[in-house]
Amino acid sequence: MRFKHLTLVLAAAGLFSTGAHAQTEIQWWHSMTGALGDKLNELATGFNNSQKDYKVVPVYKGTYPESLTGAIAAFRAGNAPHILQVFEVGTATMMAAKGAIVPVAKVMNDAGEPFEPKSYLPSVAGYYTNTKGEMLSYPFNSSTVLFYVNKDMFKKAGLDPNKAPKTWKEVVAAADKLKASGQACVYTTGWPSWMHIENFSAWHNVPIGTRENGMAGLDTVYTINTPLHVKHISMLGEMAKKGTFTYAGRTNQAEAKFYSGECAMMSSSSGAQANIRRNAKFEWSVNFIPYHDDVKGAPQNSIIGGASLWVMGGKKPAEYKGVAKFFAYLSKPAVQMDWHTATGYVPITMQAYEVTRASGFYDKNPGADMAVKQLTNKAPTANSKGLRFGNFVQGREVIEEEMEAVFAGKKDAKTALDDANRRGNDILRKFEAANK
Amino acid sequence: MVENRPWLTFLAHAVLITGVAIVAFPLYVTFVASTLTAEQILTVPMPLLPGSHLMENYAQALSSGSTMGASAPVGRMMLNSLVMALAIAIGKIAISVIASFAIVYFRFPLRNFFFWMIFVTLMLPVEVRIIPTYQVVSDFGMVNSYMGLTIPLIASATATFLFRQFFLTIPEELAEASRIDGAGPMRFFFDVVLPLSKTTIAALFVIQFIYGWNQYLWPLLITTQENMYTTVIGIKRMIMTGDAATEWNLVMATAMLAMLPPALVVVLMQKWFVKGLVETEK
Amino acid sequence: MEKRVVFRSAWLPYALVAPQIVITVLFFFWPAVQAIWYSFQVQDAFGLKTEFVGLRNFSELFHDSHYLDSFRITAFFSSIVAAAGIAISLLLATFADRVVRGALAYKTLLIWPYAVAPAIAGALWAFLFAPSVGILSYFLRKTGYHWDWVLNGDQAMFLVIVAAVWKQISYNFLFFLAGLQSIPKSLIEAAAIDGAGPARRFWTIVFPLLSPTTFFLLVVNIVYAFFDTFGVIDSITQGGPAGATQILVYKVYYDGVKAADLGGSSAQSVVLMAIVIALTVVQFRFVERKVNY
């Protein structure tokens, strides 16, 4: 009787004690929709269940620009979130906001959490690291650009379906043959600037802008109108005229053209694989992006796209401890492997990559490791670590506008790239003035 | 219709049918898409006849959102949308009808100034002033609350403008008669103006209800808890941005559900609605 | 427009306008003044460093040939959207008023699109016209027409005009229908007895009596075309290709919300606001004279 009574009292005390133990809440604003958002929620739940002191609360705050606007408004009003997911083109904006953010390296070190910058994939972490080697934001969801080939169409045109074109010369040759065999759409691309200017430059180990692509200083200047760039965009313009290059738009509209069977070759994000796997009713392969073989140093390595997690300023130390613990949790190989295999985003540590490989995942899903392979093709140089241009949202738009003029036959490549360079630099100077 | 001109009637029907076809076609496509599977939607061309997955798509949309369950259940989001829509509609009509009455039926200094002050609110899109507006709302402690969601959206120039147009058409004799009877302005307002305005009010109610129901950017910014989200946010969140595949069939099903309450309001109020604006021009 | 019979009171009118004025001041004017203040500053996104630069943002705007192009594009876009929106809905309303059979069905079906949220309507149109999988793109390709709005600026403009007008037809239709049904049948009958045909009756009686409604819709549609159409453009063309559909308000929205460039965005919105206020004043001054109340 008394034993039972005691047990009840202890149980009640236990209930109360869990209730009275205040959990530090950590607000995480993100922009992951649909199934990606569900997976993200799973990550947070996993962390919350693994310990009792902190509770990460993920909140979907709209698209990347909407979420950033919300965070800016909230910060100015004094109620910013703890963690904010920001797209890669916003890196310069976040970095320059010295009072608004706390570098991830500092958060981890202050909290005493194990943090080994060298364990992260250099081309992934490099994008978000400053010139002193300090990691500023946590690379959460990164992808890179890959080259997809419709093997059935290649066979039909008399090309070897297992030999995807490696150089642009080979692409043009294959394109002509495909066109001759009656293919309406031969080559298309998603994310034109990311593929044909940014990654193009990195893959050929040439700069996109001065000062290490903007990483070393706000006084950077674009250099996207070099003879090599002009030659490449001219080539695309020629292909457009011949009908072997079909422009599909500024985002990922090209992917539907590929998996619907309309276009034979496509360059777009590594994240397109899931969609293609689901919808393509033909044999296809995923490969490295092509390069010009007359450029010394090509192919180098590609750069990432996607988003990273920034830690906002003005919070209490206890809360930052929770953030650090959460990032440590996210870096665990098992968690990384789960996120990578479910979403298609690249794993951010070598260890996670190895663990995934050991599990046989890449054998069962050929091509799933192509992204990591391309990112780690060679050790990154100053030209291929990434980029950091101010107001790059507007910068990219300017580049895409000028490219559209070339593809529509309205401008020649040299004029367009000169204009893109000039207009881009105007935008950079505005950013510099605002953030000096 | 005064005389019987068959060819004109025929023309009328032809034009109307074409009009309906053009105007309602996107909605028809939405409906069809909500009865197919995601793969079927992405085939080219998409089938134009309804498929067989109606029940399962709608069941899924109602219960869990996307295949693995969204955080905010649809029911809660619809409640938030409903509260916003009702509060905005009723609030706007209330303050606009009395403001408009004052501006039309009184002579007082600053009268025109106030009218233009109210009218100018149409001229600066909310996206431009969203950050300072958020700050004001935050300073009042109204972030993440129904008040913060609705009150900033209540000052409406459209309603005041419409009431002004209507009040200007009310015959002078009515006001005169009221004065002769010794009634004060408020008696006139409650006994004459308001009853006459019943149908304009019904019309505005429909418009403002839909306006409130369809809000996206403001609720997104002002709330930090997903259980305060509105239906439109829920839908947009299902449309994938970036790499992964949108489950269009579920998106369309949820969109159809989200359109039901406003569409219902339109259809039900239609009688009042049309009659309401009838009295706008005497 | 003035009423002949008015009331006088020292305090009542102020009390009646107070709620609306108070809310307008707190939640519109105060933030708007701050937003406009941004246009004279250069600042980083988070407001940590601000620098007063006077009219520099404005002069930068007017030196940008792309910005100046947007004026022309906006004028074209807005006038067509407003004109088409009003004309088409007037046509539909006139015929809907005339038929007896199926009237309710027509009215319901024509009003329903208004219930679609702008955020969703944009996604719907992008879906219908998507280059590969869009069903309307498919039909257009079948007709042999080279439909490629992704590269052809004129086609892109056509597409966004269609999407913008579609949304407004329901709204205008409602108001026109109501206005038509308020016209006393006796007037129409009298004219018919006098021998006037339907067209004549329309232009000499119906249209003038519809003028308060038409004026209201004219003002509202122009404001809509200038301010509320960025959602349509954002979901379909994003101002492309090569800036062909870059209307003024789109750049305002893009710079403010997408690019976090508050100074530039505010400067542009000040310019835009000035244009629309001028347009509205012109309408009230000159067009309202023709309105019969």
Describe this structure in words.
The complex is a heterotrimer of chains A (436), B (282) and C (293). Chain A has 436 residues and is of the alpha/beta class. Chain A has helices at 2-20, 34-50, 64-77, 91-96, 104-111, 122-125, 151-156, 168-180, 192-203, 210-213, 227-242, 253-259, 272-279, 317-330, 333-343, 350-358, 361-364, 370-375, 392-407, 413-435, and strands spanning 24-30, 54-60, 83-87, 101-102, 138-143, 145-150, 185-189, 245-247, 263-269, 284-287, 305-312. In chain A, the strands form two sheets. In chain A, strands 1, 2, 3, 4, 5 and 11 form a six-stranded mixed β-sheet that branches. With 282 residues, chain B is mainly α. In chain B, helix 8 packs across helix 10 (185-213) and helix 9 packs across helix 10. Chain C is an all-alpha fold and 293 residues long. Helices cover 71% and strands 2% of the residues of chain C. In chain C, a hairpin with a 6-residue loop joins strand 1 (41-43) and strand 2. Chain C starts with 11 loop residues before the first helix and ends in a 6-residue tail after the last helix. The interface between B and C is large, with 111 and 106 residues.
Low-confidence stretches of chain C: none
How would you classify the helix and strand content of chain A by structural class? alpha/beta
Oligomer: heterotrimer
The helix fraction of chain C, in percent, is: over 70%
Task: Order the strands across the largest sheet of chain C as they lie in space.
Answer: 1-2
Taking the sheet with the most strands of chain A, its summary is: 6 strands, mixed
Structural class of chain C: mainly alpha
The tally of strands of chain A reads 11
Cα-based radius of gyration of chain C, to the nearest Å: 23 Å
Largest interface: B-C, 111 and 106 residues
